[in-house]
Amino acid sequence: MALRVVVGLSGGVDSSVAAYLLKEQGYEVIGLFMINWHDKTGVIDADCPWDEDVVFAELVAKKLDIPFHVVDLSEPYRERVIDYMFSEYQKGRTPNPDVLCNREIKFDAFLKAADAYKPDFVATGHYCKKETTTVDGTPVHHLLAGDDPNKDQSYFLCQLSQQQLSRTLFPIGHFKKPEVRKIAKAEGLASAEKKDSQGICFVGKVHLPVFLQQKLKAREGNIFEIPADLHPYSSEKQDLADLDSVCYPWRYVKEDGTWTGKHQGAHFFTVGQRKGLNVGGKTKPLFVIATDVVNNRIYVGQGQSHPGLFRRGLLIIPQEIHWIRRDLEMQAGETRDYLVRIRYRQPLQKGTLHRTEEGLFITFEEAQRGIAAGQFAAWYDGKELLGSGVINE
User: Fold this and answer.
1) Does residue 337 carry a pLDDT above 80?
2) What local confidence, expressed as pLDDT, does residue 46 receive?
3) pLDDT score at 194
C-alpha cells in the first residue's frame, strides 16, 4: 500500500512540482492549501493574491489528479506570527516573520490540520534537503542546504525540531529553480510561469509603516547623525576575547550626534535601513545605525561603510538558543567554530560560538553589517544547519 503524503500546495511552481515528483515516486498525494491572511491593510496591490493562488493550486491538483482541500489557519497565523511581529517592532527589534511562519504555521498548525487525512508524511516546496542517520541507536534527522545556492531556504527552517523534520519531505531540494520550472512546463502545470511570491510569508509585499500602523501609532521623533570619525569603533581594534565589548551594540546617549531631521516613529526603522529617512543634502546616503524606541530617537551615519553599521559579534540569551541537532548541543564553557548566517541569502560567515551561563555569544572573523536584534542567527557545519537563535543584542 502506498505511503500517503499531504503536500502544502500553495499555487506556486515549487509546491506544484513537489506534488508531481511525489506522485511519480509512487506516493498517494493529497493537496492542502492554507489560507493564512485576509486583511489587505498596507499590502501593495496584487501582492496578496491568495484568492488567485488557490485557483492555481486547484488547477495543479486537477492536472495531477489528486484530492484537493483548503484549510483556514488565519487565526493561529495572526496570533503566533503577526501579533509577534507587531510586538517585536514595538520593542525596537526586527523580527523575521518567515522563520516564525515555518516554525509555528507550516510545520505546526499545518501539520495538525494535515492529520485529518492520516498522512505518513507532509511535504513542502522548500529548497532544502533532509537526511536521516542513526546516532547511538537513535534516528537523527539532518537539515541540509538545497543544491541551488541561489534558492537555498534552509535558513528559513532554522527553528524546526527533530519531531517536525521526522514527518517532513522536501522533494525539490536536489533541483535548481530553472529545472523546477522546466519540469512544471513539461507537465503542463498551471503554475509553471507564475512569479515567486515576495514579502511577508502569506501576507505579501507590504508598505511596512502602513502595515505596522494597524497597531503601532506614529510618533514624531528626531534623527541624529553620528560622524564616522567620531564613532567608537572607527579608531580601535576590538579584542574578540572581550565578549561583552564585541557582542553588545554601542549605546548612544542623548548628547550624541547632530540633529539632522524628523521621523514618524523609531519602531518603524531597523539597523541598516536607508529608505524612509527623508533627509537630503548629505554627501553620502544616510543609513540607520541605531534606534532608541524608549526616547524615540534614530541615529544615522553617512555611507555604506560607516563603522556604526558593523559589529564583530552578537548575543543569544539561553531561552532563545535552539538546536536542531540536540545531540550536538553546547554546554557552558564550550567554544566551537561554525559557519554562521544572520539573514537569508547572506553568504555563510566564519564565526566562533562561545557558550556561557549568560547565553550564546557569536563572534565573527569579519565584522558583520546590520546585525539587528530580533533577527535569527543560524549556524552550519558545512551544508548542515545545526541550530539557531534570536539575536538579543
Assistant:
1) yes
2) 46
3) 86
Q: Output the CATH code of domain 217-309.
A: 2.30.30.280
CA distance to 48, 53, 92, 173, 311, per residue, from 60 (Å): 20, 11, 42, 20, 47
The pLDDT score that the predictor gives to residue 216 is 82
Q: Give tens-digit pLDDT for 116-127.
A: 999 999 999 999
Question: What is the distance between the alpha carbons of residues 48 and 211, in angstroms, rounded to a whole number?
Answer: 13
| Residue-level pLDDT at 209 | 62
CATH topology of domain 311-390: Elongation Factor Tu (Ef-tu); domain 3 (2.40.30)
E-strand stretches of 44-107: 68-72
Phi, psi of 292 (to 5 degrees): -130, 95
Task: Name the pairing type of β-strands 4-8 and 121-123.
Answer: parallel
Q: What is the DSSP letter of 170?
A: -
* Whether residue 201 lies in the annotated active site: yes
Q: Is the pLDDT of residue 203 over 60?
A: no
Catalytic residue among 48, 101, 128, 158: 101
CA distance 392 to 305: 24
User: Which is nearest to 200 in space by CA: 290, 102, 273?
Assistant: 102
Q: Among the options 48, 128, 158, 201, which is catalytic?
A: 201
Tell me which fold the domain 4-211 belongs to.
Rossmann fold (3.40.50)
> For residues 21 and 176, is the Cβ–Cβ distance under 8 A?
no
